[in-house]
């Protein structure tokens, strides 16, 4: 299955291409969302649509400076729009075999290799529920 | 090949029309149980015939054959209406269900379910109703119908009076007085041809302080005179008998009357066409986008030279007016009578009552009320669920009712009415009512709330526990209400369209579920406020007023800062703290705006950093995950392209959690 490959700082991650609608340059500012968790950057407008954007590094619990320069990977699955803020997008690669998780996490499906690079493949459903929690679900 | 293509093209039309006929069949059938009339049986026959015909033209043989057998049976019943009984009604319902399952299969492109058993039964019963049997003269007296039936033909026209009234010149509010008199008269009968029109009377525009109206009433002259005399400052000038129709020259206003009444005969019935509902959705989206785009043009104009800007704004105003008009028309086209939902209920009520061994009278009123299609669509399941609840958990079995001294037949009332910009949907039963203490106990047991919280709950709040996920007071899990969507789904669905759910209940006397729904989903008038770097929209309808004062000038009551507002005091809170967003640093001695809003828990004053003005916007519903955020009603995009959240001030979080002014 083809995956979109992207970077958070130096580490590489991948998501199924089917779930990605497009990639855009991250806006300079966002509209803040009330009650939202720290991983939520806010909402942006894209051609009249209001799209929530989440800082993927923070969602994964990674440290590091909250960057402002980067890309937004727009996902479209289960009829909802969601933007993931990432450092950069590197391309599209076929990924078939995914190895086990390095440590248990709902957000990660497992590890794989693309050429010489180690890539973490993310789990869409786990991502979705973590995002919902960031927006104050219950 | 061409024929194949043609059929698929008409499939959706077949599905929608056949479904309508089958719904109507179900409805008529239930009505028949309240009293057999030849006319109702005719109507059953016609609907069955239509379904058969449509299925035939689509080439659905199994459906056609089923429809044909049903038609045969109904034809027999038509000539022997006295033989129509519950068993036949059940069989007809079975056939209707089988036909519906065919229609659904056709819609999904699935194979048709087998209907041979129903067909065999239909044939058997049809044979037993041979025309050889002596048909008794049809004389069954029509019993009170289960549902409010269509208006009966009125025996004779009540007399019509031309009432001319004068409002005293010294009256402070002649419009109000005139309107009061009008309202009083309307209690006596039907009013026609108000001259000048009622709107002008209301605003006091009456030549010579006089207005006239025609009253159709069976009340005697003296009662009319007395009714008018009860309104202060209003005097009856004349009361003349009018003959209608046609208007005779004896009536002083005959010239106007002849042309004014829209109800004159010979008028063409309004013509309608069918439109795909998705198309209406697209229209609304486009009209909404047009409004936003217009605002965008105005925004660009701000950077123009003043003279040019004036010209541009004039054009934009005109454009905005036109687009607004278009938007209104699209909204109007989307308005759907709630009968779309309620028409199916008698049949459903009958089925549920039958299965649960209950006797039910379902009284439906107000099904002509109009609501936005999107809301009507979302209401179908919740309303059906409330009905199930009422019959299954509300109304007791007949024996139990007798023991309690109630009539064995339970009453479920479903009423729909307009109340200003809301539509109220009420489902009321006269059953056993809800057990508030038991609800609380179960909620505590399941760990939803603590015992302390349970003690502090008001009755209204406690009743709403039944809408918390995973709670049901039914002692047994029944096959009807115990599974599938629960009250939590009802609450969620209602809130998703901007409505609210309220429950009131009295032990042993019944329960009322009240849904308060917005008329439409789209336009909202906002007060824009700044909090920190952000802008939020507060619905003007919920804003009671704005007060400029410094935080230091607030007084305190029970350690909570309060703002003097009119004759009352309201608790004051920082909007930034309520929303958990950063606000601007403030100097407590410098005045800042407090917006007083109406929440579900009373009035609250919200301190904001600045008022940015008023704007009418298109409200966009929030999609996942934004719909999970507390206190948001929707979002809109301003002309500048900036998204702005619209706050649901009625449900600002409880005062305990939000920091009071000064504590932030």
What's the layout of helices and strands?
The complex is a heterodimer of chains A (138) and B (664).
Chain A: E1 2-8, E2 11-16, E3 20-25, E4 40-46, E5 49-55, H1 56-59, E6 71-77, E7 80-86, E8 88-94, E9 108-114, E10 117-122, H2 124-134
Parallel strand pairs in A: 2-10, 5-7
Antiparallel strand pairs in A: 1-2, 1-8, 3-6, 4-5, 6-7, 9-10
Chain B: H1 2-33, H2 38-58, H3 61-79, H4 86-108, H5 116-128, E1 160-167, H6 174-186, E2 190-195, H7 198-202, E3 210-216, H8 221-229, E4 234-242, H9 254-260, H10 277-301, H11 306-334, E5 335-337, H12 339-342, H13 345-356, E6 360-365, E7 370-372, H14 373-394, H15 398-403, E8 410-419, E9 422-429, H16 436-445, H17 451-456, H18 459-464, H19 487-496, E10 500-506, E11 510-518, E12 523-531, E13 534-539, E14 543-550, E15 555-557, E16 560-565, E17 568-574, H20 575-579, E18 591-599, E19 602-607, E20 610-618, E21 632-637, E22 643-647
Parallel strand pairs in B: 6-8, 13-22, 17-19
Antiparallel strand pairs in B: 1-3, 1-4, 2-3, 5-7, 8-9, 9-11, 10-11, 12-13, 12-20, 14-18, 15-16, 16-17, 18-19, 21-22
């Amino acid at each position: 299955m083809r995956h979109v490959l992207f970077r958070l700082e130096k580490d590489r991650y991948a998501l199924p291409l089917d779930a990605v609608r497009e990639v855009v340059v991250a806006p300079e500012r966002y509209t803040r969302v009330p009650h939202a968790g720290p991983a939520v950057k806010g909402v942006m407008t894209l051609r009249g649509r209001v799209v929530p954007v989440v800082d993927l590094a923070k969602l994964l619990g990674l440290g590091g400076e909250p960057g402002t320069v980067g890309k937004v990977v727009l996902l479209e699955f289960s009829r909802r729009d969601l933007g993931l803020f990432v450092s950069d997008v590197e391309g599209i690669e076929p990924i078939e075999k995914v190895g086990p998780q390095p440590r248990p996490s709902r957000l990660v499906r497992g590890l794989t290799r693309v050429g010489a690079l180690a890539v973490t493949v993310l789990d869409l459903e786990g991502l979705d529920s973590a995002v919902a929690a960031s927006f104050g679900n219950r | 090949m061409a024929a194949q293509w043609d059929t698929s093209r008409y499939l959706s039309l077949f599905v929608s029309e056949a479904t309508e006929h089958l719904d109507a069949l179900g409805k008529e059938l239930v009505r028949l149980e309240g009293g057999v009339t030849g006319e109702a049986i005719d109507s059953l026959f016609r609907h069955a015939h239509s379904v058969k015909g449509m299925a035939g033209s689509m080439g659905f043989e199994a459906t056609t054959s089923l429809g044909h057998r049903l038609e045969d049976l109904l034809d027999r019943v038509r000539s022997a209406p006295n033989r129509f009984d519950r068993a036949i009604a059940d069989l007809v319902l079975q056939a209707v269900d089988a036909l519906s399952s065919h229609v659904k299969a056709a819609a999904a492109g699935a194979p048709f379910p087998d209907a041979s058993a129903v067909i065999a039964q239909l044939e058997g019963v049809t044979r037993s109703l041979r025309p050889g049997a002596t048909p008794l003269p049809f004389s069954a007296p029509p019993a009170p119908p289960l549902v409010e039936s269509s208006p009966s033909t009125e025996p004779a026209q009540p007399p019509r009076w031309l009432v001319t009234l004068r409002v005293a010149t010294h009256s402070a509010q002649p419009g109000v007085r005139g309107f009061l008199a009008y309202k009083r008269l309307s209690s006596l009968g039907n009013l026609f041809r108000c001259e000048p029109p009622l709107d002008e009377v209301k605003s006091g525009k009456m030549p010579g302080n006089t207005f006239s109206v025609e009253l159709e009433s069976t009340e005697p002259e003296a009662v009319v005179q007395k009714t008018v005399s009860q309104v202060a400052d209003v005097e009856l000038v004349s009361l003349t008998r009018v003959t209608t129709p046609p208007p005779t020259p004896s009536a002083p206003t005959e010239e106007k009357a002849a042309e004014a009444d829209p109800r004159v005969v010979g008028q063409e019935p309004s013509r309608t066409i069918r439109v795909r509902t998705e198309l209406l959705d697209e229209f609304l989206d486009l009209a909404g986008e047009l409004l936003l785009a217009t605002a965008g043009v105005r925004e660009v104009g701000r950077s123009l030279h003043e003279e040019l800007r004036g010209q541009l704004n004039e054009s934009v105003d005109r454009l905005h007016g036109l687009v607004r008009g278009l938007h209104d028309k699209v909204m109007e086209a989307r308005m759907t009578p709630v009968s779309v939902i309620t028409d199916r209920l008698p049949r459903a009520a009958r089925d549920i009552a039958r299965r649960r061994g209950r006797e039910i009278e379902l009284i439906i009123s107000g099904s002509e009320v109009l609501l936005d299609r999107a809301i009507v669509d979302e209401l179908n399941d919740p309303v059906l669920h409330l009905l199930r609840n009422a019959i299954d958990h509300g109304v007791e079995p007949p024996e139990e009712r007798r023991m309690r001294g109630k009539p064995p037949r339970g009453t479920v009332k479903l009423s729909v009415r307009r109340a200003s910009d809301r539509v109220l949907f009420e489902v009321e039963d006269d059953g056993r009512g809800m057990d508030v203490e038991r609800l609380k106990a179960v909620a505590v047991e399941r760990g939803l709330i603590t015992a302390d919280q349970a003690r502090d709950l008001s009755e209204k709040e406690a009743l709403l526990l039944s809408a918390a996920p995973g709670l049901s007071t039914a002692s047994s899990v029944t096959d009807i209400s115990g599974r599938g969507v629960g009250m939590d789904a009802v609450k969620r669905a209602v809130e998703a369209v901007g409505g609210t759910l309220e429950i009131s209940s009295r032990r042993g006397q019944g329960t009322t579920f009240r849904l308060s729904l917005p008329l439409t989903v789209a336009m909202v008038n906002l007060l824009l406020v700044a909090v920190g770097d952000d802008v939020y929209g507060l619905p003007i309808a919920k804003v009671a007023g704005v007060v400029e004062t410094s935080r230091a000038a607030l007084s305190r009551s029970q350690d909570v800062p309060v703002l003097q507002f009119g004759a009352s005091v309201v608790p004051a809170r920082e909007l930034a703290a309520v929303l958990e967003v950063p606000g601007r640093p403030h100097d407590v001695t410098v005045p800042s705006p407090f917006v007083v809003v109406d929440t579900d828990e009373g009035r609250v004053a919200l301190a904001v950093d600045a008022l940015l003005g008023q704007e009418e916007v298109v409200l966009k519903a929030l999609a996942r995950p934004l719909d999970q955020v507390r206190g948001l009603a929707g979002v809109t995009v301003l002309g500048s392209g900036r998204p702005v959240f619209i706050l649901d001030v009625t449900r600002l979080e409880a005062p305990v959690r939000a920091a009071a002014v000064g504590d932030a």
